[in-house]
Write a structure and sequence with these properties.
Protein name: Lytic murein transglycosylase
Shape: globular
Organism: Zobellella endophytica
InterPro entries: Lysozyme-like_dom_sf, MltB-like, MltB_2, Peptidoglycan-bd-like, PGBD-like_sf, PGBDSf, SLT_2
Distance between the termini: 39 Å
Strand content: 5-15%
GO biological process, one term: peptidoglycan catabolic process
Order of helices and strands: EEHHHHHHHEHHEHHEHEEEHHHHH
Oligomer: single chain
Helix content: 25-40%
Number of domains: 3
Number of helices: 17
GO molecular function: peptidoglycan lytic transglycosylase activity
Structural class: mainly alpha
Strand order of the largest sheet: 6-5-8-7
Radius of gyration: 22 Å
Number of strands: 8
Length: about 475
């Protein structure tokens, strides 16, 4: 999907884009995993809101943990994983991109003619292709956005502050009130809580206020011609042409993020074909227009297909006992609630942990920040955008829209985020001391977390695996 605020990838397996899978063979970090072809990681900021590619199991939209102001939600996905995420666009204006040379445009024209043959072989009618590509040119701005790499990152609490701000909550409650009958009908049909539908809408496009204005055909054609993931972009481009051929929209109305995410809830074209709904009954699955009904129903349908449990929480803040083994705190280490109860995990008021099925313990800021028990619905949200930060933001925003409050345990706000260069330095220094991170790529993945924990244990410290400035100073 395409999120309106930059997603932050948690180090536990990622973000951020929202979102990555361990490299094979295992390395220091993660590789981009395809997100479900459906949604694009937020338009607004990169990293916290943007989406992952779902059709091919792509990782969260090019998210790299907590990318600050970078529009990084990556797309690509394998079927039934998470919607392919598309990098988010910044709501702020950017410098004009340099003009594309005549030679580049000629090369692009040759590629377009070659691609036309592949599109027609895939079943696209000549008239549909020619109408869609009538005014398409190589888009230098899309090339620039695709090639940039974020150096600075933001902490998860900074991301959540923006994602669940008072303004966003207030606007969301107003929209909810305006659309109450529609949301109730969607909730009843798909069995997905209205609060999470609203939260996704808020995260992806700020309730429809920023849906992107890049021509989808031109953007995807540029990426298929000269992008980092040409095969994925071409797959999405064929899907976009199929949408046009179906008559659901026109080339002029098919606009969205530079990475291909479309509409109020930022679906990638492949996800649209698989999950989009005509809830209004007008014969078109319209996620682009001013009326968000079809888009909201499509998001609900997507979540329902991945097993959303109506009425169950995504997670809750918990208290961990003294001496807790942080080595078991991993969002993918799902255990029966009885397992956590036996280890002393309780609610904040000391009551037994509620049983909503298997749960995992998540400590996004290490031992000095809040801890959470996350349940099945948290994993379902990650199907929409694999970034841990995104899933937390959607869950927390939904709770606040429904009247919930802030997290009670304070974040370690004195900790600043490490830059990519500092993360690479941390990895090199750990490896030099005998704690092998399997590479230094500036991405905090499972190997780096394991190396940090081993180093912390060797020093008699709490082994939470958290990459902090204080840890880097110890290694220097």
């Amino acid at each position: 999907m395409f999120c309106f605020i930059a997603p932050f990838s948690l180090s536990s397996k990622p973000v951020s884009p929202a979102s990555l899978v361990p490299l094979s063979p295992k390395s220091a970090g993660w590789k981009r995993r395809p997100q479900s072809p459906l949604i694009f990681p937020g338009l607004g900021y990169a990293a916290g809101s943007q989406a992952n590619e779902r059709d091919k199991n792509l990782k969260p939209r090019y998210l790299s943990a907590l990318v600050i102001g970078a529009v990084l939600s990556g797309c690509a996905g394998q079927a039934e994983t998470s919607q392919p995420a598309a990098p988010a666009q910044s709501p702020q204006s950017t410098p004009a991109a340099p003009q594309v040379s005549a030679a580049e445009q000629q090369s692009f024209a040759a590629w377009r003619q070659d691609f036309r043959g592949r599109a027609l072989a895939a079943g696209i009618r000549p008239a549909v292709f020619d109408a869609a590509f009538r005014d398409v040119r190589l888009n230098q701005e899309v090339m620039r956005l695709d090639g940039r790499q974020a150096e600075f990152t933001r902490q998860i609490w900074e991301y959540l502050d923006t994602a669940t701000s008072a303004t966003r909550v207030g606007n969301g409650r107003q929209k909810w009130q305006e659309l109450a009958p529609t949301l109730k009908a969607i909730e009843e049909r798909y069995g997905v809580d209205a609060k999470v539908i609203m939260a996704i809408w808020g995260m992806e496009t700020n309730y429809g206020s920023f849906r992107g204005n890049t021509g989808i055909i031109e953007g995807l054609a540029t990426l298929a011609f000269e992008g980092r993931r040409r095969g994925f972009a071409e797959e999405q481009l064929i899907a976009a042409l199929r949408i046009l051929q179906s008559g659901d929209t026109s080339p002029e109305r098919m606009r969205g993020s530079w990475a291909g995410a479309m509409g109020h809830t930022q679906f990638m074209p492949t996800s649209y074909l698989q999950y989009a709904q005509d809830f209004t009954g007008d014969g078109k699955r319209d996620i682009w227009g001013e009326d968000p009904t079809d888009a909201l129903a499509s998001a609900a349908h997507y979540l329902a297909r991945f097993g959303w449990q109506q009425g169950a929480p995504w997670g809750l803040e918990v208290t961990l006992p003294a001496g807790f083994d942080y080595g078991v705190a991993d969002q993918d280490n799902r255990r029966p609630v009885a397992y956590w109860r036996e280890r002393g995990v309780t609610t904040l008021d000391g009551r037994p942990l509620p049983d909503h099925g298997e749960a995992a313990i998540l400590v996004p800021a290490g031992a000095r920040g809040p801890a959470f028990a996350v349940y099945h619905n948290f994993r379902v949200i990650r199907r929409y955008n694999n970034a841990t930060s995104y899933a937390m933001a959607v869950g927390h925003l939904g709770d606040k829209l429904a009247g919930g409050g802030e997290f009670r345990t304070p974040w370690p706000r004195h900790e600043r985020a490490l830059s990519r260069a500092e993360k690479e330095e941390l990895q090199r220094r750990l490896t030099a001391r005998g704690f092998d991170t399997k590479g230094a790529d500036g991405v905090i993945g499972p190997n780096t977390i394991g190396a940090i924990r081993a180093f912390q244990q060797s020093r008699g410290q709490v082994a939470d695996g958290y990459a902090s400035e204080s840890l880097l100073k110890q290694l220097r």
